[in-house]
Amino acid sequence: MKIRTQLTGDVADVKVVVMHPMETGQRRDPATGETVQAHYIQMFSAAVNGKTVLSSQWGPAVSKNPFVGFRVRGVKAGDRVSVRWQDNKGERGTAEAEIR
Amino acid sequence: MKRRLFLKASASAAVIAASAGLLRPTAVLAAGWNKAAFESKSLADALKGINAADAQTSNDIVINAQNRAESGATVPVEVISNLANTESIAIIAEKNTTPLVGYYEFANGAEAYVATRIRMIQSSVVRVVARAGGKPYTASRHIEVTVGGCGG
After folding, report:
1. Which of A7, A67, B12, B106 sees the fewest Cβ atoms within 10 Å?
2. Do B152 and A62 touch (CB under 8 A)?
3. Is A62 in Cβ contact with B109 (below 8 Å)?
4. Are A77 and A6 in contact (CB under 8 A)?
5. What is the pTM of this model?
């Protein structure tokens, strides 16, 4: 997972990329001709200094290696942004970065 | 014997805690995934699923996207709601097999803004529903897709 932050005044612009296949469950494997099982992130959230700022739910139409951009007001350099996700198979991931 | 009882008790306590979501860090971030809405196969059902069947058209929702996307596999979409007290934004690709793409709730200083990249099976109206002050509002724009993005 990659997190980039840009602080302008007290507003942080946060950009996150999650490495995930986001399989829709509709795609056929060209080699085998078989449908590839659905495997996609269903929940993604972000917090600043431990306080939730974004809670989102996704379907399989979010693109592969999902990108999410969001903005948070009232933050300062050095605050911590953390993100976490969970997919339909119960796999999950987290990442954290310092806002600057 | 005592130790065994203790192990048994703590094992069942762990099961209870896990099933209650206490041990899952993700439990704090979302009440759950809105299966009914995300599995809806029509716009009407998707709107119903997010409790927005009666959404009013609004000019205070801005959808930034290209009018024409090369590939439906990754269509950049940016949404800004200028409605006061916007609580959530939903993105819907009307002609997708399951139209609801994403649902975003804001809290603790988050602006009513989200940017993402979505898949579109074909050219379609992309609809946004923003909930503000408890009421749903909607805006839309048409995006042309040269090559659909759900098969590949």
Report:
1. B12
2. no
3. no
4. no
5. 0.86
